[in-house]
Amino acid sequence: MSVRDVVVHPDATLLAEATAARLLTHLVDVQSHRSPVHVVLTGGTVGIKTLAAVAANPVRDAVDWSGVHLWWGDERFLADGDADRNETQAREALLDALGDALPPENVHAVPALDDDVTTPAEAADEYAVALAAATGNTGPAPAFDVLLLGMGPDGHVASLFPGHEALLVSGRSTVGVHGSPKPPPLRVSLTFDAIRGAREVWVVAAGAEKAEAVAAALGGASESEIPAAGALGIERTLWLVDVAAAGPAS
Ligand SMILES: O=C1O[C@H](COP(=O)(O)O)[C@@H](O)[C@H](O)[C@H]1O
């Protein structure tokens, strides 16, 4: 049976540091009985802060990064190296610091806008092929070991926004997103099918502006209203929040 836990940390900095410590320990634990390990990264404020905290944590050297594959839950459809790409921010926060320990072929960035890939749908299709290849083409996406998700104040996770048609896409692992209410408007996202194929889903959220969405998601809101409510792991769904995001009841 899937378990849901909520862990509240004092502030955004401690939330990021505790999430980083939790992630590193979890990777070490999983590597004691399974390889490779598939991790899905998130963009966003706390997501990137968490990656920087991983880079600064000495336990990162206890992880065998050659056996870790990194994916993204969503990406802003921009040119390679654009400062607003989640990949660019993740490279600056963590991947560059890992250096040779992390083989480049283990880093599965969402295709960027270029001469060959000109629409979010093309990028999504290419990413779906990469995801399926990682399963040996036996399924649409790996059973991710940990899937990290930030959450916007509107309750969006990855690039699945409230009321958006991308929420309804099923039977495939990725979707091209047009008209994102948060800039940039063009994005690529994992679908709920791919998200819900993860063993563990960790939603990280900080700040009072997220409190209403956290309460709604945990209080049984529909996923069309609050997409974070539909982000569930097969074995565990973990909500990692700070006091402000947990709201007055915490
Ligand atoms: O645009 C995005 O926003 C969300 C949440 O970001 P935050 O700054 O409010 O924490 C993030 O999860 C997503 O990956 C990103 O593309």
Automatic annotation (TrEMBL):
Superkingdom field: Bacteria
A UniProt-annotated Pfam family: Glucosamine_iso
Entry's Gene Ontology BP terms: carbohydrate metabolic process; pentose-phosphate shunt
Domain Glucosamine/galactosamine-6-phosphate isomerase: 11-239
Sorted UniProt keywords: Hydrolase
A Gene Ontology molecular function term of the record: 6-phosphogluconolactonase activity
Coiled-coil intervals: none
Catalysed transformations (reactions): 6-phospho-D-glucono-1,5-lactone + H2O = 6-phospho-D-gluconate + H(+)
UniProt cross-references to InterPro entries, sorted A to Z: 6-phosphogluconolactonase_DevB, 6PGL, Glc/Gal-6P_isomerase, NagB/RpiA_transferase-like
Pathway the protein contributes to: Carbohydrate degradation; pentose phosphate pathway; D-ribulose 5-phosphate from D-glucose 6-phosphate (oxidative stage): step 2/3
Entry EC no(s): 3.1.1.31
SUPFAM superfamilies: NagB/RpiA/CoA transferase-like (SSF100950)
Enzyme class: hydrolase
Family, per entry: Belongs to the glucosamine/galactosamine-6-phosphate isomerase family. 6-phosphogluconolactonase subfamily.
Stated role: Hydrolysis of 6-phosphogluconolactone to 6-phosphogluconate.
Entry protein name: 6-phosphogluconolactonase
